[in-house]
Amino acid sequence: TLLLNMVHSGQMKAMPARYYSESREMNVIRPLLQCVEEDIREFASLMEFPILPCNLCGSQPEAHRGRMKLLCDVFDTFNPNARKNMISAMGDIRASHMLDENLREACGLDGLTGRVVDSERAALIGEYGVEGDEVNGAANGKKSSETQESIPKSFIEKML
Known about the structure:
mainly alpha, 8 helices
């Protein structure tokens, strides 16, 4: 979904791990989001789960999703962890390095330069700089990893 949106609509967005569907009036949780499709397929085979035939959006050979899978296959030739890294990257956005000025401002950064202008808001997204400082260095000389609170690392814990 991320690649489809980037290529076809020029937007960086994907389906989140947990969201509320207004049209169906239900919460959707995608617990296998960080699992590689081949691993799921292998596990289902080992467990002898029945595989239901599917002719939905991604299964037709000429569909855009099929083409994006081919593109991901190419990425895998560069790095075998490419797919996992792309999913991890969706949860580790650096607003200061994005082109969206509105996003930067909403995150307590200067829209044009990405410098911290509101340290309280910027700290919420892991941007640690001193307001008005020449360089977006760490506040009080500490590295960001030293100033962040201990956050649960489990993907499932974050969704709950």
